[in-house]
Write a structure and sequence with these properties.
D-amino Acid Aminotransferase, Chain A, domain 1, Dna Ligase, domain 1, 2 domains, 6-stranded antiparallel beta sheet, 4-stranded parallel beta sheet, 14 strands, globular, nucleotide-binding, D-alanine-D-alanine ligase activity
Length: 348
């Protein structure tokens, strides 16, 4: 079955489903989330939150599709509302875009609460969504199943013993990144370097600027970067056409500046390696027990795909690989949200 036909089948099912429920959207937004929150909360980096424009795109689509939509700009306000009003779990679903906090398990709060109260929600469960934040852990799991991942070492900038780094990465180009944040957060041009003993001072300096406690030192895969949307429908996994990320001239990876400024474009990957990437993404989704949907990020070297990041709740704003993909399939922007909710219902 061709990729776009899978989505068309899902949308056909959506059109006959009984859409008679309230939709609760949990989405952390710049300014709004902090303004409404308890001042004791340790918030995520603001670049993790939706801007006003970004959330307007998503909210408009959700209102157009579902009608009865209530928006919560923080996880706590949603939980308080459910508890205070004794909400019937059969009369609502949660469209989960929550991402506040700084610890590895920050995305697990809403899934675990919803599971406790038998509320249906989009996206993976608390365990899986937390695992997807931890790059070295999911990479270790996938490598055991013969999925290619970059060499990665967790590094404390204050540690003296660098033997593990030497053994694993001597002579490799590397990227220094956060262990449990979105791939581009904290990245600058300086985060890419050739690893050697002569580079120790610079390595420590850059690592400390990214995160003074712990960073991931990861092999840089020099080659094309692409993103793959994988849908889970009736428990089966379907990878969509990979979308290549095109960078500005003389730039080779997604850093904070490029990401925040939307300084990148998209194009469909239509070369033979696409089938290998799709098969790898579906295999990884199955191993990790992804629910409903996720985005798998690859870099390709010598026609070999390396899986380096996974987004459990990927951005679906207009400037995203997911929105670009649906447009290339001849579908409407609102179809993204119909597809994800239909997948959710099929998996309960």
């Amino acid at each position: 079955m061709r990729n776009h036909q899978i989505i068309e089948n899902i949308l056909s099912q959506y059109n006959i489903d009984n859409i008679d429920f309230d939709v609760y959207v949990i989405a952390d937004a710049q300014v709004q989330t902090i303004k409404e929150s308890d001042n004791r909360i340790c918030h995520a980096d603001e670049s993790e939150f939706f801007s006003r424009t970004e959330f307007a795109e998503i909210a408009s689509a959700l209102f157009n599709v579902f009608g009865f939509v209530r928006v919560f700009y923080s996880e706590i306000s949603f939980i308080e509302y459910i508890l205070r009003n004794h909400i019937d779990p059969n009369g609502c679903i949660v469209y989960n875009l929550a991402r506040d906090g700084k610890m590895p398990g920050k995305k697990s709060l809403i899934p675990s609460f919803c599971d406790l109260y038998h509320i249906k929600y989009t996206g993976s469960d608390a365990f899986v969504i937390s695992l997807l934040r931890n790059k070295p852990d999911f990479s270790d799991i996938l490598s055991v199943h013969n999925i290619n991942v970059p060499i990665s070492v967790v590094f404390n900038p204050k540690q003296e013993n660098l033997s593990e780094l030497n053994t694993a990465l001597e002579g490799h180009e590397i990227l220094i990144k956060n262990v449990c944040e979105s791939a581009s957060i904290g990245l600058t041009r300086e985060c890419k370097m050739l690893f050697s003993s002569d580079a120790y001072p610079k390595l420590r300096q850059v690592a400390t600027s990214v995160n003074p406690k712990q960073v991931l030192v990861q092999e840089f895969i020099d080659g094309m970067e692409c993103e793959v949307l994988v849908l889970q429908y009736h428990k089966d996994y379907y990878a969509m056409t990979p979308v290549v990320i095109t960078f500005p001239k003389d730039r080779t990876f997604m850093d904070t500046q490029i990401s925040n400024g939307y300084q990148y474009g998209f194009q469909l990957l239509q070369t033979p390696v696409a089938s290998s990437i799709c098969a790898t993404a579906e295999h990884a989704a199955s191993i990790l027990n992804i629910k409903d949907y996720a985005r798998f990020d690859f870099r390709v070297r010598d026609n070999i795909p390396y899986l380096f990041d996974i987004a459990g709740t990927p951005y679906t704003i207009h400037h995203s690989s997911v929105a670009y993909l649906f447009n290339e399939y001849g579908l409407q922007y609102e179809d993204i949200y119909k597809t994800i909710v239909s997948c959710m219902f099929s998996n309960y």
